[in-house]
Design goal:
The chain has about 170 residues and is mainly alpha-helical. It has seven helices and four strands, in the order ααββαααααββ.
Length: about 170
């Protein structure tokens, strides 16, 4: 794949947020996390061996999953971020955390794709990771969805657990 992933993410940000525009360099921290996991590759800076852009998806067994993450799952988070949040804050917080979660999910042997069920599972996992809600709060947050089945699937995949106080916690 020959597209610059930083530019793809910057375009997604610029298409959905008002205010200062993002550049490919703004997303370098997220892409470096993926590069450290071997999922994307950049050019290596000779003195530091730090991966620098442009980044492209690496040829790995997780190539399709990484492509789906860049094309579908990460952009869904970008769209959900409120206007007014500076891009560097979003990258350092929500997007970097989601990227680390994606890598942990892969290490657990779970791959989220583009299907509606996988998109819902990803959204529910991110909601749990960010908020540690209980089941009643999950039902309110996802009123139109089959939330109990999604929670059961995530528990079965060992990605979340129910705590003794009734809250849900991400293990990824």
């Amino acid at each position: 794949m020959n597209r610059d992933l930083g530019s793809v993410l910057a375009d997604g940000w610029n298409d959905t947020h008002d205010g200062p525009s993002a550049t490919a360099a703004d997303f370098a921290p997220v892409l470096r996390i993926l590069a450290d996991a071997g999922l994307v590759r950049g050019n290596e800076e000779p003195l530091t061996t730090l991966q620098v852009g442009p980044f492209r998806i690496a040829a790995t067994p997780y190539e399709t999953a990484t492509n789906d993450f860049i094309d579908v799952l990460l952009p869904s988070l970008i769209v959900g971020l409120a206007d007014g949040i500076p891009v560097h804050g979003a990258v350092a917080g929500t997007l970097a955390g989601a990227t680390r979660c994606f890598i942990n999910v892969l290490r657990c042997g779970v791959i989220f794709g583009r299907s509606p069920a996988d998109r819902l599972r990803w959204a529910v996992l991110m909601h749990i990771k960010q908020r540690r809600p209980n089941m009643a709060q999950m039902t309110l947050a996802f009123p139109e969805e089959q939330i109990a089945e999604t929670i059961a699937w995530l528990e079965g995949a060992s990605l979340i657990r129910k705590n003794s106080d009734g809250t849900l916690e991400s293990l990824a």
